[in-house]
Write a structure and sequence with these properties.
single chain, about 60 residues, mainly alpha, two-stranded parallel sheet, extended, methyltransferase, methyltransferase activity
């Protein structure tokens, strides 16, 4: 089974201690991303293209 990876933008709800503890308990790896960054994260380009393709296939 592959582990989950969570990428977030460091906004307060995502980095609250209760959330961080739960992610750790669930063995979810957290990828850091600078807060308030205008840059896309390295995965955004590929993720949104894949998501679009997936959603298009679901609606056909």
């Amino acid at each position: 089974q592959k582990g989950l990876i969570f990428l977030h933008d460091n906004v307060r709800p995502h980095v609250a201690s209760t959330i961080a503890q739960k992610l750790h308990q669930l063995s979810i790896e957290v990828l850091p991303h600078p807060p308030c960054s205008s840059d896309l994260s390295p995965t955004d380009f590929h993720f949104f293209r894949s998501l679009d393709n997936f959603l298009i296939q679901k609606t056909v």
